[in-house]
Amino acid sequence: MTPASSYRLFLATLGFFTLVAGDAWRYLLSWWGWGAIVVIVVTLAVIELVRSRVDVRRLPILLLATLALMTLSIAWSAYPGASALGVAATLATTVFAVFLATCFTWAELVDALARAVRIVLVLSLLFELVVAVFVRGPVLPLWVDHSGLEEIPKAFYWSRDVLFDGGRIQGIVGNANILAMAALLSLIAEIARRVAGRGSGLGFVTWVVLAAGVLALTRSSTVFVAAAVVAVVCLAAWFARRGSGPRRVATAIGLLALTAGSAVAAVIFRGPLLELLGKSADLTNRLDIWAVVADLSGRRPIAGWGWISYWAPWVEPYDDLVVIKGVTYLQAHNAWLDVYLQLGILGLVVVGLFALTTLARTWVYALDGPRDSALVPMALLVAVLVQGLAESRLLIEIGWAILVLVSIRTATNRWERR
């Protein structure tokens, strides 16, 4: 593959930033401003795809099947207009992911991701510092009027001014869990760059310490668990990579057994584990949310209520489906429960196969791919898949983009030969 131009690398970096920190654009420029940026970025990506003569017919069948099912669901959706918007948003994210997958080498992708999340982390720390030193109080997103509320819920604030109080910082994305995932992606990218021999030792230490520090300040138990799983899986792949066929099979079986055993242990010792992670017994209201979503899903179990991606707050039944302490929740807090809700059992089968086959290919690539990028696809995918067990962000923005990107790049070596 020929090296990407500086313009393309800039576009990739801007796109990664927008995928990771979409909320920052929305809080700063409103939904309309964010939408304008997305339209510009996706349009430029389409132009580059046309210039590169990318054959979209070569895309993975299960990716195309997933997109087709999402689009077809408009026909039976309980909210066809909102479904059309949701499909459009998913297709836009997919188009940009195709641009990333087909127009860059893994080294270029990792570098672009590293630059984007560095910007997110640095701006987040500066933002929280300015709020703590100069504003000295919580900050609401711009362009949002909460004057009609007697009491503004904490979840509505862009920053809660907790940098010096030991609280969970939210950064420019306005959400501790999203900021934590940005930090984890930064760790993955920086380690991958170092393994490939790119960048200085001082730079590596600086960015790793920064990312680890931000991750610690977010205190996101979901991302802590994701980081641990990524580390274990990558270590297992590294060990298997250096062995023969039998050793690889034994490592894979051992990893599956470890995963199953860990899941059983987590259920048995969930009380102490939740206390250690600072979570309540109901997983910060997740059990209640899951119960409500499961009940609604059961009314349309075969094909679901229609694809919508993130729940639209103006659409029934999402407008008041889950309201806790004045906050209307806009996701099921589990990607697979959201798939079941929106696309039913049919969606679980199609999207599940799409994700599982992609994960399987990342394991093969981790064992047989080039040394400098072998573990990158698996590390990125495992991170967003684990996050998807407690958040629905696998289905939107950076989560969906990583799933699509990794699926395409591991499905064929054609892109590497360009």
TrEMBL record:
- One Pfam match, by short name? Wzy_C
Specify the protein's topology with respect to the membrane.
Multi-pass membrane protein
Protein localization:
Membrane
Q: Name one GO cellular component term.
A: membrane
Domain spans labelled O-antigen ligase-related: 208-351
Which domain of life, per UniProt? Bacteria
Q: InterPro entries annotated for this entry?
A: O-antigen_ligase-rel_domated, WaaL-like
List keywords of the entry alphabetically. Membrane, Transmembrane, Transmembrane helix
Ranges annotated as spanning the membrane: 31-49, 61-79, 85-107, 119-139, 169-189, 201-217, 223-240, 249-269, 339-360, 372-389, 395-412
Tell me the PANTHER family matching this sequence.
O-ANTIGEN LIGASE, TEICHURONIC ACID BIOSYNTHESIS PROTEIN TUAE
Q: What is this protein called?
A: O-antigen ligase-related domain-containing protein
Name its species: Pseudolysinimonas yzui
